[in-house]
Amino acid sequence: MKPPRATLFRTAAALATLALGAAAVPAVSQTARATAATAATAEAQWIDRATVVWKVEHTAATAEELRSAAGGTLRLAPSALTDAQKAAYPHLADRPAYRLDPRDRDKAATALRGPLTAVQRAADDRDHVLHRTGVQIPGVLDDLYAGRARRARLGPVFHGGRPTLSVWAPTAQDVSLDLDGRTVAMRRDPGSGVWSVTGSPGWRDKPYRYRVRVWAPSVGKTVTNEVTDPYSTALTADSARSLVTDLADPRLAPAGWASLKKPKAVPLRDARIQELQIRDFSIADRTSAHPGQYLAFTDRGSDGMRHLTRLARSGTSYVHLLPAFDFGTVPERRSDQARPGCDLAALPADSDQQQKCVAGTADRDGYNWGYDPLHYTVPEGSYASDPDGPARTREFRRMVQGLAHAGLRTVMDVVYNHTVAAGQDSKSVLDRIVPGYYQRLLDDGGVATSTCCPGTAPEHAMMGKLVVDSIVTWARQYKVDGFRFDLMGHHPKANILAVRKALDALTPAKDGVDGKSIILYGEGWNFGEAADDARFVQATQRNMAGTGIATFSDRARDAVRGGGPFDEDPRVQGFASGLFTDPNGSPANGGRDEQRARLLHAQDLIKVGLSGNLADYTFTDTGGRRVKGSEVDYNGSPAGYAAAPGDALAYADAHDNETLYDALAYKLPTTTSAADRARAQVVALATATLSQGPALSQAGSDLLRSKSLDRNSFDSGDWFNAIHWDCASGNGFGRGLPPAADNESKWPYAKPLLTDASVRPGCSEITGASAAYRDLLRIRTTEKVFGQTTAEGVQRALSFPLSGTGETPGVITMRLGPLVVVFNATPSRQSQTVPTLAGAPYALHPVQARGADATVRTSGYERATGTFTVPGRTVAVFRASGAVGR
């Protein structure tokens, strides 16, 4: 989850940067031909109806103008950006600006509906062109149309049984509706740029597409695109057509939908979240009647649902579903999905044949994580029993019901920061309706691809509106309880706050949901063309502090696991993987003194994480200094950045990068037993589970889930990704060398591990780790001291009494109100004496004292000296006598 993320989608390799300019000359008028002929880039930016920004410098010998095939010539004069314009476009603040001649400004709307170039010519010779470039138009489109377009209701909207279909296409020369094979004219509103038509009740559930005639700079000609609706509410199979569907239609509601009662809402600061991919959940579950489908979550007696129910009873509050909207890389009909033709189970554990066989069908199989959005507000069809029509809507709703019946609320992973394709690609929806608007463009007019795919521009009014409208639809119509934003740092902070405001306005009486209870969090990474607030104030870790919207914190994650996701040598150790206390011999870890210093610094990072990553939380670090969380270094950035519990989300693993078990497989010494590997896993999970603020874990991590060391399994099929709920099926380790594309450089490290019997856990290790994790989860969710509501409350309640120059490497002792928690990551039994607690009555927490882990029950406390003794690779929680939880 830490950028730069590896290539996510099989389509990405085919997506070159798309230039906004003409390579081919269309068969249009002579003016259009001259306009388009040499505009191979789009370096001029028309930011509002009166202003163009362009890097060319005006001189007495030059004249600048916009030339349009539709609007003629628009004259420009040198000018300067106002302070407001500089604030709106910080990346353009130092560039030359030009003002449109007032006499030509009424030509703008017409000029935008055809080929358009910016030209610098000799002042005394109109035909002597010095510079020519295409023109980026999102700013002027927003200025001309967004005021009214923002208020428009787009897509299919029903009134009295009659649907109105509306699409925003301000640059289109014509838009018509292809409704079930016949053409219906649409009307353009000149003030908003919205085209619409109202039909009869007989249109309900009919397939449709928009037929848009528009100038497409990426191919340099006027095209007629047949495009599905960006605001689709339903689709035919493989997203070929949109459907005129009313989500309020009672026929789409499963029994009990209107009266569905969700588990009590858990505030974000206390949320404990399981991250889960829909297909992974059940595809290998022989007890599920609906493997790989939404309906698997209605199979209450399946192994998977029974396990989720156990987690819910222990304190898990949310299931976070990897993308479940319509995505672009999976054949939706099962009959069209290819399957590997090899006997994968018969191949050796360290063979490269499994990955070759899986890769051979990857482009045609039923598997992908889904970070390749096609339609943002329709459930993905490959998870439905029938992808053609209403089943995907009903069955998504039944999935939400099934999770609610298990005691869990539903979070959706949403990916509004990019599209699967742009330009004239057949899977480009937005860009074929309003070319050059919805995608974020670079200085030369190419589409930004720092997200690994064509990036979108939520800073543009109508892309921002699409984000808000889509989220509200999922909340109102599908009763989704939370949203996780992929690469949220590529969104403006204002856009995410607009989402929050729109959700807060939803009420049970009016909308059937309490929008204020819906949680929001995301990846607040700071990179790419938007980095460091270059284009707008981003929704990054630092900037989102204090908003109540959480960002993933990589600080403690890296400290716990060791190293980072992209180390050449995967054996770099950390707190839970034996750094200094159980070295694995890799030269990447450095010498003994270096290891000790790194371990102690990792412990400081974990302490900051346990505080909820609070910037102002003050404690004594391992160097003996009194520091704030923001003063602890994390690769040159402040470790602490949160303003309150709930601003930072703790985790030890997620879908990106190796699973926690696989990371520890690389990092722990090869002599580590399976039992000790399981214990190390629980220690790592505990650092997030017992933190202030929200925490997330990848589904199956409590069961020691492995993907056979695959670092980037987005397209690795069911063989490497499926969760095995039955311990007799193993944990997924040893299913062959992981796919070469993202893992081949690590095969020399992976090969000997995959055949090592001590690395592969059995049922006792798998079930034992899960039970120990659930005990810790139960403590976290029943002891109210873990749920501090303010930074001041955390400061009062939380301390690390043994932190300082004498701190034990590999052991963190945390005091939290009436609790003392000892995180012993070392392989040996450790005693921690807290002199200030001498005489205080502590005992092992009742949950652990009666729990499943026999080892933690051997923990001891000596009252006379205040000494806590904890076995190796164990997290023990002690509670003062007389103290009670919630």
TrEMBL record:
Keywords per UniProt: Signal
Keyword Protein transport in annotation: no
Residue ranges occupied by any Glycoside hydrolase family 13 N-terminal domain in the UniProt entry: 154-232
Residues spanning the membrane: none
Superkingdom of the source species: Bacteria
Domain Alpha-1,6-glucosidases pullulanase-type C-terminal: 729-879
Signal peptide: 1-29
Ranges where the Pullulanase N2 domain occurs: 41-143
Family: Belongs to the glycosyl hydrolase 13 family.
Protein name: Alpha-1,6-glucosidase
